[in-house]
Amino acid sequence: MSKQSTDKQRRNSDARARQLANLEPFPKGVSGNPAGRPKSITLSEALRLQLAKVSPHADERTFAEEIARVLCVNATRGNVNAAREICDRTEGKPKQAIDVEMNVRDWRQMARAHGLSEQDVIREAQRLIESATDSSLLESN
Fold this sequence. Notes:
It contains 6 helices and no strands. By secondary structure, the protein is mainly alpha-helical. Among the domains are: 44-91, no CATH class; 108-136, no CATH class.
């Protein structure tokens, strides 16, 4: 290594040591960044701002008004996607039906079918609950 580079390194380390010597921790309860992280604009906010501006291609209409007009024109010309978009925005999306088939059986019938008494099932359920409780207590410790 050349003498010039070692001198430069020494000067840098001396300057760094002087900088660190002047540092003091912040007092308790005082933030080093009181304003916090600067708020960034989200895509939704940026779109709302843009949609509120007057469109240069329309007579004193905003971009939002122009988009709504074009959607309506396209829907009346048979564009199903435009019509669906208008309906979803004005009426809300239709609820979707979910077909759920639940065959809930009576545990007593199931126990009898397997040759068990109600008391056998109750004792086994209590044993399972106690073992699950015991194992969760062991895991939390």
